[in-house]
Design a protein that fits this description.
The chain is mainly alpha-helical. It is built from three helices and no strands. Helix 1 packs across helix 3 and helix 2 packs antiparallel against helix 3. The longest helix has 20 residues.
């Protein structure tokens, strides 16, 4: 583990969903009304990655997308960034 409590394992991508959500909250100023636009942007980004990679991403990519969408749902339900 690193100082921040994150794994140093180069195959551990569990932090990506947190980073995506943190970035989304920062660029939206924490405004939950921006969630639909942010969700669409994330989905478009993953779709572009699928297209670039030939429509077959590693399973971790889809898990990350699912975690991000769940994070948006939780943010939307709580109303807090």
């Amino acid at each position: 583990m690193s100082v921040e409590g994150k794994s140093n394992d180069h195959n551990d991508f569990s932090y990506l969903d947190e980073n995506i959500l943190t970035f989304a909250k920062k660029i939206s100023g924490g405004d939950p009304s921006a969630i639909p636009v942010l969700k669409e942007a994330v989905q478009e980004g993953f779709a572009a990655a699928e297209e670039q990679c030939g429509y077959e991403l590693p399973d971790i990519s889809y898990q990350t997308l699912q975690n991000v969408m769940e994070g948006f749902y939780e943010w939307e339900e709580s109303g807090n960034a």
